[in-house]
Amino acid sequence: MEQTGKAFLRSSRHAALLALCYFAAVMIPNCILFFTEPYSIWSKAALLTLPAGGYLLWSVAFRRSGIAVWLSFPVIFFCALQIVLLYLFGNSVAATDMFINIVTTNPGEATELLSNIYPSVILVCVIYLPLLWTATVHVRRKVDFSPRFRRRTAVVGGVLALVGAGLLIPAYQTKRHVLRNEIFPVNVAYNVVLCAREYVKIENYDRTSAGFRYHARRTAKADKREIYVYVIGEASRAANWELYGYDRPTNPRLKALGDEIVVFRNMLTQSNTTHKSVPMILSSVRTNEHDELFRRKGLPALFNEAGFRTWFLSNQSPQGAMIDKLARDADSLIYMGHPRYDMQLLDTMKRIVEADTENDLLLHPALLRVAFQLSPALSARGSLLSARRRRGHRTAAQAEDMERLRQFDPLYRHLSVVGDRVSRIARCVQRIALQRRPRRGHARRRSGTFPPRLAYDDLLAAARRFAGVVFGGLQAGVSQQAAAAASHENAPATTHALFQTIADIARIEADYVYREASLASPSYDTTVRRCYLNDHNRAVPFRATGLNGTDLAYFRRRGIEL
Fold it and tell me: Are 11 and 19 in contact (CB under 8 A)?
């Protein structure tokens, strides 16, 4: 009898220890978010107390130890994912757009991502796998909590939960939807639900857009063949583009074109995530018309209706995202085979231009892999930077940041070469439109994912998703449009203008094509308020995107009003 009592005491102590370890493990993200997120003091207090109370109550909800741990596996998964995210970006909760990227990625991208985040993956495995293994042992051995421990833990958990619920009252006085947006893991669970809804819309796109037509027609046609090139390039960073004032020669070939190109320096992205920004660049959808993205067709469909032969070329394998849905509207869709280099894609484009001498063409090369391919070379070159380049920086951290950013200089030179090759291939064209999309430059952000909290690098013209528009060849026969484009070099715009501008240059009239939204039109409307599509697919002013004082000051220095 005495041995049985000692065995029970030992098992109950083990059960209590597992419950406390579970509580500590799942509270890690909340404790980190308490310091990283710009919430009100009431929200931060609720961020700790409300989940803490809930976790304690749940940990003793069952008499048998280990059951609660396994039944809360989704929460453990969210915690692990959140820790990985915090390792990548240093702030923000797992966003809806990140879950969309997970379910629409391809094996190549997944491998590239994992190769950059493996330290954080190892960390979460060390934290949570032993917890799950111990919970399994307790369930199999039928380890139970002592009634006394369950009662005390339930009382403490209940008090904390009530205190947390009470703290939500003043928190809601300063901001709406505090529980939904700021309390982990409720906010992540809500984002998963939104992700599921968005994924269903993507999967149903072929059905919901089946009967859509632009009713497009061309109002004029040139004597010569017309070829339009609409390039979506790999992510890059505005501040490292020589065309945007960077003091190093990162775009020598594009800059050498001089007055032959127009660079729009006041363009902001509608979204900083691939699965939304690229489809919006390909469509006529305004920022506040997100649901229309799943009803309307894109740029290839518009040019098809206008009588062009359309080609969509990609050096990325299919991933089932909206980009692939819109690409299938092209007359010809080509995904490059291994190794999918940029020049391989451009060689294909050259062959198309040379072979098809009869049709007016829309060529749409999507160069989406260059940053990953160049990463080893960038790291090697970055390691050669001498200590002398650090002079003039106030701290070692600032010098290290600058050194990391300079590692990407070869990438920007490569993009300049690509742009020059596009111009040479389409030497016979009457007009060319070249567009790129950029990325933040920090080394540990070479992950292919995008930070939920924004900075100026995520919004500015050459910064993430879109590097401004570079138009070339406009002078030949379209002097009015060329002059209008040049006059709007510093005009406020978003990536919504891309679709409208290339349609206007091609002199296409259609439903959802507006001259006042085209940067190549003298009637371009500079008074339209610019908005950003946030993680919950709501159009919000750029000042409401979480930009801090440093970001706003950067925009002011560049003369950009948000």
Answer: no
